[in-house]
Write a structure and sequence with these properties.
single chain, 286 residues, alpha/beta, Rossmann fold, 33% helix, 14% strand
Length: 286
């Protein structure tokens, strides 16, 4: 396939609405419509420093976007979906979806794989791991166990879905940046949505782990960057766990407390209602 060529005339597919194709612990599916209400087409660009599944991006479909995350494999997967959806689908469609195959794929060293195979591995593991959790050990190796479920979310994305997402991702700049770097690249006219991993002092929240997880010092750093972009006239919305640390960090701005259902517990009976905060410097509250 020639550089810059995305679609082949030999393929026939159905045009579908692009939707988030990754599972992600802490996904904002429950509140995405509320978050979308802050968006306006008057903004010049959508910016998301903690991309994750980018559910809000796929919901509002902005004309211009900057999607960033310090997880380089995540950003690489988005780039492959954007540039090579059909080659990626060929890889995925040949991967069996069972427990033994999952652990075999998980054991592969991504550094020994080509770009498309690495992206296919990332999406495959994301679809079939326990509750969409992204977690690595201190060596950087993905170690989330198999999490078979009858839920349709655990299936692999179709060619129609990947092609649709590819078209939308043409509008996005993709960067494997720390959130601080991303926020330094914002300007007046941007709309910034931040959904950082939770750093909660009082309890353990299963959201995302890595060799260098998001901690309370990062929450303080986030507060500092939000003050700077606020002073530049950049509009932002943050979603975060309701806890004393977050309330202290975000006290300068408008806070709305909402009820959500946690979906990270291993059994349905253990899932419960909890509270999150929506924080914004935008004048209108929804």
């Amino acid at each position: 396939m020639a550089s810059g060529t995305i679609y082949s005339s030999s393929w026939r597919h159905t045009v579908v609405r692009p939707e988030a194709f990754l599972r992600w612990a802490g996904s904002k599916k429950q509140i995405v419509e509320r978050l979308a209400s802050f968006w306006s087409d008057n903004y010049s660009r959508y910016v998301e420093p903690f991309a994750g599944s980018s559910r809000l991006f796929f919901r509002i479909q902005p004309e211009r976007a900057l999607l960033a995350d310090k997880n380089g494999q995540l950003i690489e997967a988005y780039k492959v979906v954007r540039s090579s959806p059909y080659e990626l689908w060929r890889r995925l469609s040949g991967m069996p979806c069972d427990r033994d195959s999952y652990y075999r794929v998980r054991s592969l060293d991504p550094r020994q794989l080509g770009t498309i195979d690495r992206a296919a591995r990332f999406i495959y593991l994301n679809r079939f791991c326990f509750n969409g959790i992204y977690r690595t050990n201190r060596g950087g190796n993905f170690n989330v166990p198999y999490g078979q479920t009858s839920d349709k979310k655990s299936r692999l994305p179709s060619i129609d879905e990947l092609a649709s997402c590819s078209r939308l991702l043409q509008r996005a700049t993709l960067r494997d940046w720390d959130f601080g770097t991303t926020l330094r690249h914002t300007r007046r006219g941007d709309f910034v949505y931040l959904d950082p991993p939770y750093a909660v002092r009082e309890k353990r929240v299963f959201r995302e782990y890595s060799a260098h997880p998001f901690g309370l010092q990062d929450l303080e750093r986030l507060q500092m960057h939000l003050k700077k972009i606020d002073a530049r006239g950049v509009d932002f919305v943050v979603s975060y766990a309701d806890c004393s640390d977050a309330r202290a960090a975000f006290k300068e701005w408008r806070i709305v407390r909402i009820v959500v259902r946690r979906h990270v517990a291993g059994f349905t009976s253990a899932r419960r209602l909890t509270h999150e905060l929506i924080v914004t410097n935008i004048e209108r509250l929804t």
